[in-house]
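SAMPLE LOG
Freezer: B-3
Tube label: C17
Construct: single chain, 220 aa
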Amino acid sequence: MKKSVYSLVLSDNVVRAIDDLAYKMGTNRSNLINSILAEKLCYKTPEQEIRDIFDYMKSVMDESFQLQSQTSDAMLAFRSQLRYKYRPTIRYEVKLLKIPDDDGTFGLLGVSFRTQSEELLGNLDMFFTWWEQFEKELCDKFFEGGVEYISSSGKHIRKLKVSDKVDNNSKTIGKAINDYVNLIDIAIKEYFSESENPFMAMGNVRKRVLSGVNNNIIII
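STRUCTURE (predicted):
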């Protein structure tokens, strides 16, 4: 949403109260006034949309996930434990954009391991090599420009876009992201449980992607 500079004449006492409240909320004067006016006019700002999406995700999040401290209003981080010999955790980061990119990207989902094990990181990279391949094979048709990943060793970021199968509102977007993360988390854990049998592990990954398509889960 485009923003411009406007001049307003306000009472000094009102400005002091706004500044105090903005400080307590971890925001600034302009954002708080913008939010108050938007609420009064029954208009949702991008910040409110993001907050509503995250609030919905928190309300339906599976108990296997543990929320982490929120360093930004536009990012939600949580983790899940993998039953593996190194006892690593899988870290998920959902970052939402206030203004969608020209290609329709409205956010990013990052997945990484908190581990120093090269073996574990290599297995995660292999999982996402297959996951991305099957997503592109089965899901590209739902998105303009296809499914897009930004991958490096040990961390994989997927661009989030709204397909034609999703109503563009905070509840359905929050549910779509939540369901998609659940699907990936289950698939990763299944993959590592069969890591000594690569052919079976690969087959399980494809089955999960296919189940996501059939159940309208892979729709972001």
